[in-house]
């Protein structure tokens, strides 16, 4: 018989009992894939709201969130599984018969039930736009559809959901059923008026502290379990800061192939650099606007630029202006590949455009580098040197709020940037006499420690 340690974790001033089934070895008997869950995210819900606002431009909308009480404890464990959930209280053995916090598969078991409830509400009860994240169900309604329920004015769709829960004896507390034009859902502020999703001050403070605690781990090492917990928290943050994804690349690389939960993993320079960037950027970043984020056509761009790179130079052009930089090789300097230079050209164009006095929002950049286009869509690279450029690009995007996209253009259609990148200034002037040519210097301080 295995006995799992039991302790109390305080969250937001409330005690939560946790059974540590990792310490007792019970979780190690569960295949890792059995505990994986795919959650709804804010991007999906933001797109739903965006579509509704476009379809009903003259309607006022309202958001709602409903919370199930004691989610895991609503589900009984299988009789054979209950025998594994042994705890001691006052030196006496007890069997815990419900699912608990601390079991690797509890989130997946609960999410299977909550997904079924969400599906029934959406498909059978007609609650359009209903989403769920663990025990938080959320959606939208027209503001004109407010009705009285439990002595409070609530959106009709929220009332439908709560009546359904009453019918199946799903527990909830009235005080946790919220509605409004700006409400907090899974730690994010959703503002239907501004059309934005942003972090709460509480979330920012907690994440910055978590990063600091991790980076100051004893002997610059932390157990795999701590790595997984931090990456999980930061990955959740990508709901509102998708451009922060490159800061997790090195962490996932360090964890790859490791399975021993309490095995210490060294915190190397790349991870320290990226997490420091994450912490600094987090406190000044602009959240996403779901009203138009990535929902615009290329021909609606506020600004368009073309970039290119060669072995001898970098360039970018726009609206009668051409900029070039001659690459200087010095003995002993690091050798960079053409992919690095293509990304550096894009970064240089972005930094130049973002520094203009005239504000812009939709920026479109064309590049004839398919690798660069793919990387800036996936936000994932294989080399640390390339990741430093992604972080620099992300830093500009997150601080300015520019909605930035890169498209591929065939080399034959990128002749202006191509001529400048190869420093063929005479040929460029012959073909494009109206263009003004200037030089620029890539800002190396944007590349962090590289």
From TrEMBL:
Entry's Gene Ontology molecular function annotations: nucleic acid binding
Residues making up the signal peptide according to the UniProt record: none
InterPro entries linked to this entry: DNA/RNA_pol_sf (IPR043502), Hepadnavirus_pol/RT (IPR052055), RNaseH_sf (IPR036397)
PANTHER family: REVERSE TRANSCRIPTASE DOMAIN-CONTAINING PROTEIN, RIBONUCLEASE H
Protein name (database record): Uncharacterized protein
Lineage of producing organism: Eukaryota, Fungi, Dikarya, Basidiomycota, Agaricomycotina
